[in-house]
């Protein structure tokens, strides 16, 4: 019995590559490189809260758009702010029973 021919799978375009419905995206520019006046400081909780999720996790570089140098500085500032209780470690602290 002959083997059935395999067609293209669901969601695949030319040559087996998956289609991406995002469109054209412009490259992200690090806001700290673009504006030299902005400084990364562990005491600035409002600035650092933009680089944490609702759960309290640090946003990765590919999402935040920071360059590697400034992402390291942001990460260190968030960790320092957490230790000094300026920024919460998690969004909600559960009460112990």
CATH H level, superfamily name of the domain at 41-91: Ribosomal protein S18
Strand content: under 5%
Give the low-confidence spans: none
N-to-C SSE string, H for helix and E for strand: HHHH
Helix-and-strand structural type? mainly alpha
Distance between the termini: 66 Å
**Average predicted confidence as pLDDT:** 83
Named CATH topology of the domain at 41-91: 30s Ribosomal Protein S18
Anisotropy-based shape = flat
Please describe what this structure looks like.
By secondary structure, the chain is mostly helical. It has a domain of 51 residues: Ribosomal protein S18 (30s Ribosomal Protein S18), CATH 4.10.640.10. The protein contains 4 helices and no strands. It is flat. The N and C termini lie far apart (66 Å).
Features:
single chain; about 100 residues; mainly alpha; 30s Ribosomal Protein S18
Summarize the structure.
This protein has 97 residues and is an all-alpha fold. The protein has helices at residues 31-34, 45-49, 61-64, 68-83. The protein has a domain at 41-91: Ribosomal protein S18 (30s Ribosomal Protein S18, Irregular).
SSE topology sketch:
Layout: H1 31-34, H2 45-49, H3 61-64, H4 68-83
């Amino acid at each position: 019995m002959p083997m059935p021919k395999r067609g293209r799978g669901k969601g695949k375009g030319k040559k087996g590559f998956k289609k991406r419905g995002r469109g054209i995206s412009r490259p992200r520019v690090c806001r700290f490189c673009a504006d030299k006046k902005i400084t990364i400081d562990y005491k600035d909780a409002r600035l650092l809260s933009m680089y944490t999720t609702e759960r309290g996790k640090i946003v990765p570089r590919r999402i935040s758009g920071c360059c590697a140098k400034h992402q390291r500085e942001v990460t260190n500032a968030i960790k320092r702010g957490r230790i000094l209780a300026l920024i919460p470690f998690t969004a909600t602290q559960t009460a112990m029973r």
